[in-house]
Structure formats: structure tokens, C-alpha cells
Write a structure and sequence with these properties.
This protein has 409 residues and is an alpha/beta fold. The chain has helices spanning 2-13, 15-19, 53-61, 82-88, 94-102, 156-168, 215-232, 246-254, 285-288, 306-326, 361-377, and strands spanning 39-43, 75-79, 108-112, 172-177, 237-239, 278-283, 291-294, 299-302, 338-344, 380-386. The chain is 30% helix and 13% strand. The chain has an eight-stranded parallel beta sheet. It has a two-stranded antiparallel ribbon with strand order 7-8. Strand 4 (172-177), helix 7 (215-232) and strand 5 (237-239) form a beta-alpha-beta unit. Helix 6 (156-168) crosses helix 7, helix 8 runs parallel beside helix 10 and helix 10 (306-326) packs parallel to helix 11. It is globular. The model is unreliable at 1-19 (pLDDT under 50).
Length: 409
């Protein structure tokens, strides 16, 4: 009876034990220890005539009960966008994740994004282009359980994150905050400091990045996700959204979520590095690492082979890590970040006249072996290939990204 009375007292007089609350630490204080083995991951993709998630898991990981050998995949990088889970219910993929576990996959990565239309930010941060962010990001994150959950129902992103994580936290280890928020076709993304418009010294313009919103809004999503996810699972890891540009990482690390100017004040006490544990990046060697400028010749030299392509994933990590070290993420000032790659591959065939766009079956096969070894030697915890199945036939393909699957079309 005394134990029961004690529980009832806790239930009614200690709301934080029931409703949760923001964590008192950030990634500037502590990062969860990695307690897993290396995961051979893949982006499963969508195939109109092969749209059963469980079947895709069978051919990815294998299913001995059905006699399916599989491709050796041990983790998926999946997506659970808000528009999807609000339409079909938050439990819609639970049985699929249970099946993934049954066939030997675990500790998956899920990227969080894509609000339903009613929850989309309607502010035209970039004239004539729709923002990809959630509306009401700057509403309070927490309301003390006023509506049955600890998060504020007016903060759509907080509610979405809370519901997804509460439902799938037993299956997911890495929560990735959006997919490629820094995707850009502007030269400002890769310009060096000193060049007008470069991102090292200027915040990316909303029109220049995929999210079509200020970078402070992206940092705000990281902060909301960090607080909500850690309140539900202290050992979960929050990652950046598959970044491609060190200059964008630099902008995250120098800005807070302050929508006015990214500066620090009492309401916005931390810059973006406080809100992620793991550095997730994307690297496609055929776009980035097949050429080196030769000053003597005054032109590019091309190095199109699997050794260079495998080195590329490490070179990308080193470039990102240099930025983190500049901001004190060195294990002394702040904890070191952990690492995953959530998209990478080289094409089975080059499909245009650009000298960089090169691929063969041999190169892809050899790169795959070497890249997975290089990742493990360099403390990268998961590598997710793009993607499980090719989307076009080799002879008629028109886009090299459709020739990056583990299985043919």
C-alpha cells in the first residue's frame, strides 16, 4: 500500500516524470557513447511494383526462412514524413520495423521532414518559392502537458517529432534532421572566404538552399528535435541532415536559432553545434573527387579509379572535421562529434560528356569494397548506399543516379 501511495503521489504532484521536459544538457556537454558495430546501410527507395517494405527488407538483408540470401544490408535509412504519418497513422510502419529486426537489421537512421500542407511555413523567405520548413517553429516547444503531451500543440514540428520518436524509438538510433538542407546550385556554396557571397563569411541566402528559408530556421528545427528526442530517449543520437558543404556546417556552428540575426541571447543561448551528436554527410565521388587542379599545366587532371573514389569519403570527412575543430569540437572544449554517411555511391555507367561523370561496373564494385573498409578505419559508424535498386536499365538510362542500386532495375 505504501508503494502504491508513493506512486500516486508521484503521478499527481510530479508532472515532469509523466510529461517530460527539455534536457538540461546539450551536445556541448555530452554525446552518447557508440555501442554498436559498423552498419552496412542503404536507402531502400520506392519502386511502384515492389512497394512492400518487408519484401525490400528481405532482399536487402536476407530472410533465411524464405530462402532469400539478400545483399548483406544491416540497417536502413528510412523516411517518416509528417504528411505520410498524419495520413496513415503514426503506427503505419511499426510492423515493417519489427520485420527489419527479425531479418537482422537494427539501429536504423530516419530523416525527419516534409510537413503536411496545412503545417507548412507560408512565409516567402525566397520570393516566389515555397519554404520547406514547418510553420510555427518559434512557438514554445513545451507546455507542461496542457494538451496531454509535454509538447506545445501549436508547435507543429515539436508534435510531429514527439509522436514519431515515441512510436519508433525502439528501432531507430539516428534521427537525421531533414535531407540535404544545404543542397544548392549556387557557386556561393563552394566559394572560398573572401569571394563575395561565400558561405564562410555570409549566411546562405534562402533562395540558394533547398529549404528556401534562413539557416536560423534550420537550426531551430535541430534545437526542437534535440530537446524533444532527448526527453524521450537520452541515448538517441541527433544528426545533421546529410550535409554536402563545409561552409554550410560553418554557418550552423556560428549561428543560433535566433531568427533576427543568429546571435546569442538568453532565449537563444547556443549555436547549432549544441543540437546534434553525429555529423551526417553525403558524398558522391564522381561529382567531387575525380579531378585535381594542376597549377603547372593550368588545367584539371582526372583520377577516375576506385582508390581515389574510396579516399574521397575520408577526404570529405576531414574537410568537415576541420570546421568542427575550429569551433572547439575536439574532445577537450566540447565533445567530439560522431560520424555517419547517409548517401553515397558511384554510378555503374557515366551518362554525359562531363569528364567527371565516369562509371563502370568494375569501378563501382571495387569502390564498394574499399569504401566500406575505409569508413570503418576512419570511425564512420554507418554508410548508406544510394540506393537498394536501380531505377532504369543500363542500356537506356538517362541519369547516373538511377544506376547506383545493389540490384538491377
Amino acid at each position: 500500500m505504501h508503494n502504491l501511495l508513493f506512486f500516486v503521489t508521484l503521478l499527481f504532484f510530479t508532472p515532469s516524470l509523466i510529461f517530460g521536459q527539455a534536457p538540461t544538457t546539450t551536445a556541448n556537454d555530452v554525446i552518447p557513447t557508440w555501442n554498436d558495430h559498423f552498419r552496412y546501410g542503404v536507402n531502400p527507395g520506392y519502386y511502384p511494383t515492389w512497394n512492400d517494405d518487408k519484401f525490400l527488407a528481405n532482399i536487402a538483408a536476407g530472410n533465411t526462412s524464405l530462402g532469400i540470401e539478400g545483399a548483406g544490408v544491416t540497417a536502413f535509412r528510412a523516411s517518416l514524413p509528417e504528411h505520410f504519418v498524419n495520413q496513415w497513422g503514426y503506427n503505419v510502419r511499426v510492423s515493417a520495423f519489427q520485420h527489419y529486426e527479425m531479418v537482422g537489421m537494427d539501429n536504423h537512421t530516419v530523416f525527419l521532414q516534409e510537413p503536411e500542407s496545412a503545417h507548412q511555413d507560408m512565409t516567402a523567405h525566397c520570393a516566389g518559392q515555397q519554404s520547406l520548413m514547418f510553420a510555427n517553429l518559434y512557438e514554445d516547444i513545451w507546455d507542461g502537458g496542457a494538451n496531454g503531451t509535454p509538447v506545445n500543440d501549436d508547435n507543429y514540428y515539436a508534435v510531429y517529432v514527439y509522436n514519431v520518436v515515441e512510436t519508433y524509438k525502439d528501432y531507430v538510433d539516428y534521427w537525421e534532421i531533414m535531407n540535404e538542407p544545404d543542397l544548392s546550385y549556387s557557386s556561393n556554396a563552394w566559394q572560398l572566404p573572401g569571394v563575395p557571397g561565400n558561405w564562410w563569411e555570409n549566411d546562405p541566402a534562402p533562395c540558394d538552399i533547398a529549404i528556401k528559408a534562413p539557416i536560423q530556421y534550420y537550426i531551430r528545427t535541430m534545437r526542437i528535435a534535440y530537446e524533444v528526442i532527448k526527453s524521450l530517449d537520452a541515448n538517441a543520437t541527433i544528426t545533421t541532415g546529410g550535409l554536402g558543404y563545409p561552409s554550410f556546417l560553418h554557418a550552423i556552428l556560428r549561428n543560433t536559432d535566433n531568427p533576427v540575426d543568429g546571435s546569442v541571447n538568453t532565449d537563444y543561448p547556443h549555436t547549432g553545434g549544441a543540437y546534434f551528436d553525429v555529423m551526417s554527410y553525403h558524398v558522391y565521388p564522381h561529382l567531387s573527387c575525380y579531378r585535381v587542379w594542376n597549377n603547372t599545366l593550368g588545367q584539371f587532371e582526372y583520377i577516375r579509379h576506385s582508390d581515389a573514389a574510396a579516399d574521397c569519403i575520408v577526404d570529405f570527412k576531414n574537410n568537415m572535421e576541420a570546421v568542427l575543430l575550429d569551433f572547439g569540437y575536439d574532445g577537450i572544449t566540447y565533445p567530439e562529434k560522431r560520424w555517419i554517411i547517409t548517401e553515397s555511391n558511384v554510378p555503374r555507367k557515366g551518362l554525359n560528356t562531363s569528364p567527371e561523370n565516369y562509371g563502370t561496373e568494375e569501378l563501382q564494385r571495387n569502390w564498394l569494397i574499399k569504401a566500406m573498409v575505409a569508413a570503418q578505419l576512419n570511425d564512420i559508424e554507418q554508410v548508406h548506399l544510394f540506393r537498394l535498386g536501380e531505377r532504369q536499365d543500363l542500356a537506356t538510362a538517362t541519369w547516373e543516379f538511377d544506376l547506383m542500386g545493389l540490384y538491377k532495375n
